Amino acid sequence: MADGTITIDGQTVPFTEGQTIMQAAEAAGVYIAHLCHHPEFRPHGSCKLCTVKAGGRHVAACTAPASDGLEVENESEELAAGRRALLQLLFVEGNHYCPFCERSGNCQLQALAYRYGMVEPHFPHFYPQREVDASHPDVVLERNRCILCALCVRASRDVDGKHVFDIVGRGIHARLAVNSASGRLADTDLAPGDRALEVCPVGAIIVRGRGFAVPIGERLYDHRPINEIGNRVPESEQ
Amino acid sequence: MSKIRIATTSLAGCFGCHMSILDIDEKLFDLAAVAEFDRSPITDIKQCGPCDIGIVEGGVCNAENVEVLREFRRHCKVLIACGACAITGGIPALRNGVPLVECMAEAYLDGIGTENPSRTVPNDPELPLLLNRVHPIQEVVRIDHFLPGCPPPAEAIWQAISDLLAGREPTLSYTQLHYD
Amino acid sequence: MESLDDEGVVLRVGEVAARHGDDPHRLVQILRDVQAALHHVPAAALDGLAQRLGLARVQVEGVATFYSHLSATARGHYHFLFSDGYTDRMLGREALVEQLCAALGVERGVPSADGRVTIEDTACTGLCDQGPAGLVNGRPLSGLGPMRIETIAGLVKLGVPVDEWPQELFDVADNIHRRDLLLAGPIQSGDGVRAVLERGAEATLAEVERAGLRGRGGAGFPTARKWGFCRQAEADERVVACNADEGEPGTFKDRVLLHTQPDLVFEGMTVCARVIGARRGLVYLRGEYAFLREPLEAVLAERRRQGLLGKAILGAEGFDFDIEIHLGAGAYICGEESAMIESLEGHRGTPRIRPPFPVVSGYLGLPTVVDNVESFAAAGAIAAHGGDWFCACGTAESTGTKLLSVAGDCARPGIYEFPFGVTVAEVLEACGGSGARAVQVGGPSGTCIGQTEFSRRIAFEDLATGGAFTVFGPGRDMVEVALHHSRFFAHESCGFCTPCRVGTSVLAQGLERIARGGAGRADLEPLKQLSGVMRSMSHCGLGMTAANPFMQTLERFPEDYEERLAGDDVMPAFDLDAALAEARALSGRDDAHAHLEQRHG
Ligand SMILES: Cc1cc2nc3c(=O)[nH]c(=O)nc-3n(C[C@H](O)[C@H](O)[C@H](O)COP(=O)(O)O)c2cc1C
Ligand code: SF4
Ligand code: SF4
Ligand code: FES
Hints:
The complex is a heterotrimer.
Chain A: E1 4-8, E2 11-15, H1 21-27, E3 51-54, E4 57-60, E5 71-73, H2 77-93, H3 108-115, E6 132-133, E7 139-142, H4 151-159, E8 165-168, E9 175-178, E10 205-207, H5 226-229
Parallel strand pairs in A: 1-5
Antiparallel strand pairs in A: 1-2, 3-4, 3-5, 6-7, 7-10, 8-9
Chain B: E1 4-10, H1 16-22, H2 27-34, E2 35-37, E3 51-57, E4 60-62, H3 63-75, E5 76-82, H4 84-88, H5 100-110, E6 130-135, E7 145-147, H6 154-165
Parallel strand pairs in B: 1-2, 1-3, 3-5, 5-7
Antiparallel strand pairs in B: 4-6
Chain C: H1 6-19, H2 27-38, H3 43-53, H4 57-64, E1 78-83, H5 86-90, H6 93-104, E2 117-122, E3 134-136, E4 139-141, H7 146-158, E5 176-178, H8 181-184, H9 191-199, H10 201-211, H11 223-232, E6 239-244, H12 253-260, H13 262-276, E7 280-285, H14 293-305, E8 322-327, H15 337-344, E9 368-372, H16 373-385, H17 387-391, E10 401-408, E11 414-419, H18 424-431, E12 438-441, E13 447-450, E14 468-472, H19 478-492, H20 498-515, H21 524-537, H22 541-545, H23 548-556, H24 558-562, H25 576-587
Parallel strand pairs in C: 1-2, 5-11, 6-7, 6-9, 7-8, 10-14
Antiparallel strand pairs in C: 1-3, 3-4, 10-11, 12-13, 12-14
Helix pairs in contact in C: 1-2, 1-3, 3-4, 6-7, 9-10, 9-13, 9-16, 10-11, 10-13, 13-16, 19-20, 19-23, 20-21
The complex binds flavin mononucleotide, iron/sulfur cluster (2 copies) and FE2/S2 (inorganic) cluster (FES).
One iron/sulfur cluster binds at residues 146-152, 176, 199-200, 202, 204-205 of chain A.
């Protein structure tokens, strides 16, 4: 596969060899919805928000390679409906109490839900019982909001070289666990400054002392949708 | 032309959404010109009659909530779920992670300031019986429109009502749609 | 029960790990052995293994919590797993499980008070033609009935070790009712390998191509193409992996092949090794078939003795190839080829991102051919008899024969080897299942059809199948069938991607509501929409097909749904009155306001 161009909703987008559709789109400033993708980390492909139709087939843009002449459909009614359904599934799977969440207004899950006009969760809530881990002096792990994107897993393992987080359990019982015999974050080697603390797209990893720093009305997604401003890491909350 | 009838109620909510309804401020006069309120905390009417629009704040946490919600569904042509609690269970649903027996004990037996020498949970038909979990209202009856927010901004509420009055499908703009 | 303190556990798992060369890639095998030795994988074992293998503890925990044959809490010395396939249910397995629970005073899923006995349900164990079935300490129990359960209960009460139980309890029948190319004329062991040596690798590949062989695991990918890709992939080493996970409910033909024709299967793997230039062969045998391991090892040993495996096979310098058996540990998803490779490498069975495909980057990153047991058997036979022999049978697009695992409402369940192109009606005729209401071809992830479609053909161009052929007789309730299988998929979802992880659970809950009359017509819409999202947006075939039982039965047997729907409107998503039960009990109330009707008044 060599360099070439693809089209995304009719717009020509160049790519270099080895790039995924997502990488090509990002380089060209074309927004494709995503949650588990982060340009600095290995593609993962689990949230499926980035599903596009490429050459007539549904593929995850963050893992599918770009190939010359590929026609990609990104913002169609059908894909929007599918993405909305995925968001609804994520909302009912966890316990997302936006009204008192520190990440509200800066949360990518919420922002995508706004973007796709999700006004209700559509499916019955699971109301799962999940553990909040407040053992660590600097960080709170709020599993109720975790969407299992594994970004913290990748950041800790691949950048911090620590493997503080991983996903355990199977199916709907999959959950984020931490690397200590006690199961507590305080007993891991997580430390302030770890990259893993800055990648969570939702409010599941909260660095203490930073919450609600930005008043409502001035937060990232208060006035403009995520497809216009993209993601920003939670450093913005400082 | 006869006025349209609107009913509102708060189930497992905090009346914050009702405050937001009042926050449409001077538009209340516009509204009063074309609409009148049936059952609502504003009128103190206790039974809902035939209505054009029903606005429900709060989720269902007890048997009475379910009965009131059904009364609204029966009488209102269009039913609107108003606010985070109605749509997701909201703050009251935080108790879903706590066993009901502990909630009851906290409320009736061991809570600070509780005096209950008999140490029994009251057996009183006047008290609405709690559901084991709090649920959003669309998990009980069909809902026609949703206004998210805690509370939904007054503009969103007015947007929805005026859209309905004009015979349009209510649509929220980007800044009118938020969950907090 | 042996009870070890943490230090003892660490020592013990250290011994187990040492037996596996402290190889982290053998983690699943190690954890299986730990489970067998300690009846569970205790927390201390996670620490011990993490240290010993140089892995993060949380990583070991991730693997240990993925497989259903591994448990964090102790299982009994007598550990029963009752097969919960739908055909087992049709044969009355529920009453038998109850009977054994009652006889032993054990609650299902809960260890007995003395910790000696556990009785649990498990997904279809691949003994559908001789159900109700199950496993005790990994050994198969088939043809269960009240008498057998009584015998078993007696043995447990007397404390007879499972190894000393009468052998007939563990007999597994082959039940072959129709033989054709593969089952009728087995080749002499070595014929295929000799042929590939005479003909040469390239010509053998051409022969497989001429045969038109397509993958028997269900997807039907042309086998020669796959082998060709792998052969061309740049690498110093290549791998042949045999997919013997056979997890699709209703399928058991790989069990019978491995029991009756193991040589042919290994022949095919060895032929493949010669064609692609592999030195390593792996068989991924589903954990439920652990009882096949010993006989298979014996066959491998015999083949080594005959010079058909090992160094310089049949004297051909440089033709080195050997086969190793890995066991699964209870995860249907590990039948998906890339999840299988992950599991072989000692990881959670999460399907990989594709591309790269296994033929380019598979086991340990090496180009790997993954083929189904039956595909290898066919390849072995093709090597010996030639491509023309094979493609003379079947249809133009689907050459050769297909082994069908026939079970359910029919007189003669078992294995039927038919040429491709056979109609469903013909198979029904042969197995004594005429008059059926429905047939599920290819298991729950396949296609469920009704009588009007019984003239359709078993073939890749019509009804593709991995081999399951499950018959549902006149009185069968297809909503129950769909509910059962939607629960199966929810249980087996690996949990990696959103549409499948959450969608399968939402769908199973939705079907539960429908089945108990708690849904209205309007409640079907979100489920239909969800099914479409699962199909188009899931990461792998599991999620993509998990809604098939629902969608197909809704389309073909709408009357079963109609009679349950409570009107046109939506119904409450949960049982209102049941949701009040706890508060009623706590308050002692039972007045009119302490109850709610489910239907809207
Ligand atoms: C969820 C899932 C389960 C599967 N289970 C099996 C299985 O048990 N056995 C099998 O041979 N193929 C199974 N497959 C298909 C394999 O991924 C793969 O296509 C097959 O092993 C290739 O071999 P073949 O070309 O010989 O058919 C499964 C696929 C999926 C998506
Ligand atoms: S904690 Fe955040 S980053 Fe980690 S898996 Fe959960 S949602 Fe993703
Ligand atoms: S479709 Fe299901 S089984 Fe496949 S990757 Fe997704 S969650 Fe796992
Ligand atoms: S962003 Fe592609 S699957 Fe999550």
